[in-house]
Structure formats: structure tokens, C-alpha cells
């Protein structure tokens, strides 16, 4: 199995926290979409004939594309790759793009899952983040998607936003539960230098919440969603039974994927490739960057991705993939962490307890091979 990722880097408005590559010059969209068709054809052998099981439109704001533009990319890819066994086709969307006509058309073109970037159901928080929708628009977007027949909807929410924890965060979570979203991605705000929040922070006008508040808000999210029947299956992701994000889960399991578009990344099992993070350079045909992973790189990535998930590391699989020496070292280091409670061990697996996912980076880093 393999995945296809389509990166649509355009946005009408730049969010105050966003550090991803994006462009607000929508005049280049048609050119980029044409170049993405060309790239699909050039890269038709990248996945080695493996069937495509998931397709994902990320950004940026893919919902700025028309349903026909989305559908034409899907149809073109289906003529180049084996897409007969596709299990999931996701489109990331802004709530204010999702009117009934648009949603009905997406369904006809084969999109069966939406990832809606709500972030908050508090209008003041949305204004702080420079989002272009309101809480009411977010609610209506989900309801309209239901009317269009979508039964697999993911909602993004953000915590760790100064001034919007506590009751404000609980109200946003209550709204998510009322809408019965099948999947919730809950991200802690990170203040990056090259963002509006980062520039304000450098001027002393904005500051991140402290570690204690981060932990409190993480646990509010964790307890609220797990009590409502959601599985906390990855550091930032919760799902109702059977509703995990299949495309993203494939990343954490080391599955091959091909990324198309400016700044898109690809992985074929041994090499990682990435396109120019620039519309101009992408359209000029700049060759992708490439990194060949060493056995140490592959081991460290394996540790990092698996320990982000509730299943953790299958020790038998780790031994088969990386050999006895690495397995013995991993078991020795992990054993100390099991004794402190930083890891749990059962059924020949080690994992980070989901309630401690917020602190997982330190655990993962300690298990890396230097």
C-alpha cells in the first residue's frame, strides 16, 4: 500500500501561527495545478507499482480549489497509479469555503473525508489567530457536510493559546462533541519565529503559556475526548472506533508516499525527497532535494514515529528490521524508562502512555541511536 499527497500551498489569509510554506498570491494557482499534473506523470514510477490506498489534499488551503480541479487531479492520478483499492480520500478545508453546492460537488468527485481547520469555537480566539471564519461558520460547515453525505469528518482544535484555556477550551471541545466529529486533531500552539505570533513575541507583545498550563490543557483535551469515547491513538490525534486517519497513520508506519506540489515531501522506503518550497522555483522545474537514509536514520525514524502512537514499538518487528544489537540496546534503554513509568511494556511492545504524550519527545530522544 502507498499514499498520494497533493500540496495546495495557497491561502487567502495567513494565520498568525502558521510556519508552513504558503502563498497568498492566488493568481499562480492554475499554473501550479497544471505543473502538478506534469509532476504526477514524471513521478508515475516512484511508488514501484504499489497500489495507492490513501489520497490526501493538504496545504495551504485546498478548499480554495474548485471541486472540478480536485477531481481532475484525482482522475489524472488514477490513470497513472493503481487507485482501485483506495480506502480514503481527504481534503483539508476552511469552514467558510464549504457551502452546500461545493460539498455536494466534492462528494461527486470522490472526496469521502474532510479535515476542517476550525482551531477554536471562540470568535475572539479566532480573531487572535487571524482565522477567516467564525465559530458559527464552523458549525454550519460541519452540518452542511453531513447533509452532503460526509460521514467521516475530522476537526482541528488548538490548545495552549494564551488567554483561551480553561472554560474557553472546554466550550470548544463541547462544540466538537455536539457535532459528533469522527476525528479530532488537537495541536498545542507553537510560536515559530517566522510568524506573526513569533514577531510579536520578539517584541515582547506575546508569550507562550507556561509548562504547567500546557500540561493542564493537554489533560483537559485528553480527558474530555477519551471520556466521550475517542481513542487517543497518536500524540495529537483522537478518533472514534474505526475512524483513525488512514493516510496520516501510514506516515507513522513507514509506508511509501508520493508528494506532489510545491514543498511536498515523498518517501520510498530508503530515500526522502522534497520539492522546492517556492511557487516560482517549483514552476521553473527545480529538481527535488534528496536524502538517502542510513540504517541509523531509519532506526531513529522508526523509534520516533512508532512511539508517537498508542501501539508503540513492536519489539519483534524492531529486531527483524534492525538486528539483534540495536534491539538489545533499545530494550535496555527502554527498560529503565518502564521502571520510571515513562514507558509501558506489554505483549512484546513498548509505548508511551497516551496521558504522557505531551512529554514524549524527551523519551523518544533518549532512545535514539547517536
Write the layout of secondary structure elements.
Elements: E1 2-8, H1 29-42, E2 52-59, H2 67-78, E3 88-93, H3 100-108, E4 113-119, H4 123-128, H5 135-147, E5 153-159, H6 166-179, E6 183-188, H7 196-202, H8 211-227, E7 231-234, E8 237-239, H9 246-252, E9 256-260, E10 265-267, E11 271-274, H10 279-283, E12 289-292, H11 295-306, E13 313-314, H12 315-322, H13 324-340, E14 344-346, E15 349-351, H14 360-367
Parallel strand pairs: 1-2, 1-9, 2-3, 3-4, 4-5, 5-6
Antiparallel strand pairs: 6-8, 7-8, 10-11, 11-12, 13-15, 14-15
State the gist of this model.
This protein is α/β, with parallel strands linked by helices and 370 residues long.
Amino acid at each position: 500500500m502507498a499514499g498520494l499527497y497533493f500540496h495546495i500551498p495557497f491561502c487567502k489569509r495567513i494565520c498568525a501561527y502558521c510556519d508552513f510554506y504558503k502563498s497568498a498570491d492566488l493568481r499562480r494557482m492554475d499554473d501550479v495545478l497544471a505543473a502538478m499534473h506534469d509532476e504526477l506523470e514524471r513521478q508515475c514510477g516512484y511508488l514501484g507499482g504499489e497500489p495507492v490506498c490513501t489520497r490526501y489534499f493538504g496545504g495551504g488551503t485546498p478548499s480554495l480549489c474548485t471541486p472540478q480541479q480536485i477531481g481532475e487531479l484525482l482522475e489524472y492520478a488514477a490513470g497513472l497509479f493503481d487507485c482501485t483499492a483506495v480506502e480514503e480520500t481527504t481534503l483539508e478545508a476552511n469552514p467558510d469555503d464549504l457551502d452546500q453546492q461545493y460539498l455536494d460537488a466534492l462528494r461527486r468527485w470522490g472526496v469521502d473525508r474532510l479535515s476542517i481547520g476550525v482551531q477554536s469555537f471562540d470568535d475572539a480566539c479566532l480573531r487572535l489567530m487571524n482565522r477567516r471564519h467564525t465559530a458559527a461558520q464552523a458549525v454550519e460547515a460541519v452540518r452542511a457536510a453531513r447533509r452532503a453525505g460526509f460521514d467521516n469528518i475530522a476537526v482541528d482544535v488548538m490548545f495552549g493559546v494564551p488567554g483561551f484555556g480553561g472554560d474557553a477550551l472546554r466550550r470548544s471541545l463541547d462544540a466538537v462533541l455536539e457535532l459528533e466529529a469522527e476525528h479530532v486533531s488537537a495541536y498545542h500552539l507553537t510560536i515559530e519565529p517566522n510568524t506573526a505570533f513569533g514577531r510579536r513575541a520578539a517584541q515582547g507583545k506575546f508569550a507562550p503559556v507556561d509548562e504547567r498550563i500546557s500540561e493542564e490543557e493537554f489533560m483537559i483535551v485528553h480527558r474530555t475526548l477519551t471520556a466521550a469515547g475517542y481513542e487517543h491513538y497518536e500524540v495529537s490525534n483522537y478518533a472514534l472506533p474505526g475512524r483513525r486517519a488512514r493516510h496520516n497513520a501510514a506516515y507513522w508506519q513507514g509506508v511509501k508516499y508520493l508528494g506532489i506540489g510545491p514543498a511536498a515531501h515523498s518517501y520510498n522506503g530508503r530515500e526522502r525527497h522534497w520539492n522546492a518550497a517556492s511557487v516560482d522555483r517549483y514552476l521553473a522545474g527545480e529538481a527535488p532535494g534528496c536524502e538517502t537514509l542510513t540504517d541509523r536514520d531509519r532506526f531513529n525514524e522508526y523509534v520516533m514515529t512508532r512511539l508517537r502512537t498508542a501501539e508503540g514499538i513492536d519489539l519483534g518487528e524492531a529486531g527483524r528490521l534492525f538486528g539483534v544489537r540495536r534491539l538489545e540496546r533499545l530494550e535496555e534503554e527502554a527498560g529503565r524508562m518502564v521502571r520510571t513509568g515513562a514507558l509501558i511494556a506489554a505483549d512484546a511492545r513498548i509505548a508511551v502512555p497516551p496521558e504522557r504524550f505531551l512529554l514524549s519527545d524527551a523519551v523518544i530522544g533518549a532512545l535514539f541511536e547517536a
